[in-house]
Amino acid sequence: MTMMKPNHKPLSKRSLKASEMVARDIVTFITEGGYSTGDMLPREQLMQEQFQVGRGSLREALRLLEVQGLIAIKPGVSGGPIVGEASATGLARTLSLFFRMLGATYEDVSDALLILAPLVARRAARNGNRDEIAKELQEVLEVSECDGQTATESTRNAAQFHTTLNRLNGNPVLALLTEALGALFNEHIVTHSDASGILPHCRNDHRLIADAVIARDSDNAAQLSYDHMKSLIEFHRTRVPAIFNEPVQWR
């Protein structure tokens, strides 16, 4: 006998829980209060008074933010909540959970990077802050092109080029999303493959992309970025082909 799926009605939009509203208010408190990464937030008792909530709701709110990496809890007598960072790695972890629920594969992640990477390069080439862009790209290239680097250092410096380019596109949402997908690709695929064979090509590609961005040649910057990302994906596909068809795992 075939099992039939229950005919559930769509879930109505639920109201925020008390802890979620407190978490939202804490983020507002951080951003509008001038707090920076690493700063201590007020102690628990003061936060209860500040947000007019009970201990349970406050602790659940802090836990919600801690899971996202937006705060950290320092243990001990002198401890308490510390401001974290809206990092790409934190977003990548959350996205990987949602992608897993969607049944998305690493091929889908790669395809998304092929769409976003050229867009970022094109926007960076059109960014009006020319002196800042030239300075930052030259600095990151000088570091990545230094002799005597280990494979780990070269990989980290190559990733830093993309972080810089993403940020220079001028849109923080696009920058964080692209960086998060790149972090997911690196953590889930690159770490399972030997990237040393492609690192010299990456350095050359990065130089060409940077030159096009600095020259404000947006079409060339976008095409070079696409070609670079495509070659990077295909390189790792030859090393770990099976993983591209696997569903994204939550890590």
Task: Write a short abstract of this structure.
The chain has helices at residues 18-32, 44-51, 55-67, 88-102, 106-126, 130-144, 151-167, 172-188, 199-214, 218-239, and strands spanning 71-74, 80-83.
Question: Layout of SSEs?
Answer:
Blueprint: H1 18-32, H2 44-51, H3 55-67, E1 71-74, E2 80-83, H4 88-102, H5 106-126, H6 130-144, H7 151-167, H8 172-188, H9 199-214, H10 218-239
Helix pairs in contact: 1-3, 4-8, 5-8, 5-9, 5-10, 6-7, 6-9, 7-8, 7-9, 9-10
Pfam family, one: GntR
Protein name: FadR family transcriptional regulator
Organism: Parasphingopyxis marina
The count of helical stretches stands at 10
Give the overall shape, derived from the CA principal axes. globular
Calculate Rg over CA atoms: 22 Å
How big a fraction of the residues is strand?
A: under 5%
CATH class of the largest domain, named Mainly Alpha
Give me the side-by-side strand order of the main sheet: 1-2
Ranges where pLDDT stays below 50 over 5 or more residues in a row are: 1-6
CATH arch. level architecture of the largest domain: Up-down Bundle
Number of strands: 2
How much helix, percentage-wise, in residues? 55-70%
Summarize model confidence as the mean pLDDT: 91
Termini separation (Å)? 38 Å
At the fourth CATH level, what is the homologous superfamily of the largest domain?
GntR ligand-binding domain-like
Topology pattern, helix = H, strand = E: HHHEEHHHHHHH
User: How many domains is the backbone divided into?
Assistant: 2
The name CATH uses for the topology of the largest domain is Four Helix Bundle (Hemerythrin (Met), subunit A)
Tell me about the largest β-sheet.
2 strands, antiparallel
Return the structural class: mainly alpha
Domain HTH gntR-type: 16-86
GO molecular function: DNA binding; DNA-binding transcription factor activity
InterPro entries: GntR_C, TF_FadR/GntR_C, Tscrpt_reg_HTH_GntR, WH-like_DNA-bd_sf, WH_DNA-bd_sf
Protein name: FadR family transcriptional regulator
